[in-house]
Amino acid sequence: MLPTTPAPRAEAIPHPEGVSNDEFRAALSRLAAGVVLVTAHEPALSEDGPLGDDVGMTATAFMSVSLDPPLVLVSLRNGSRMDDLLAEQPLWGVSVLAESQRHIAGRFAMKGRISDRLLFEDIAYTRGEVCGAPLVGGALAVMECRTERRVEAGDHTLVIGRVLAVGLPSADGGPLTYFRGRYRHLG
Question: Which of 8, 25, 97, 114 could cross-link with 101 by S-S, CB 3.0 to 4.6 Å?
Fold first, then answer.
């Protein structure tokens, strides 16, 4: 029998500081996060053209920043459709998803997804009075925001928004959370 040599292992290449992308992802996957749907309305290009498009994106990197004034932060991947839109459109909405809304989170998080218009097609929502963006029906909370500041941070942009209006459409159920790469519920 011939001796065999083990196949070479794909080694994670660390950054100059010593942490690889895989190590970083693995560590942060152990931090439970709430799940929100960030939405915005892209205005029509011209007054006599189509009505414009609604755009949505699932986010777990969302947090409260300040009580006075009321500020929140969302982290957007540079060059994503939402990043590009919020660079031009200062008004946007946030729906804090309930555990029963896992299908909405998954739909707006998938890669190579269909058009946003089709993604919103069978989801109950109201249009924010201030931001004009879709706010998901049955969400635990909804917020209408105006961008105060954009901060470039590595391969993401941190968008800090002033909360202009809030709503509490549903008190039923717990929050949808994300932990170790999967949507979870508190239990």
Answer: 97
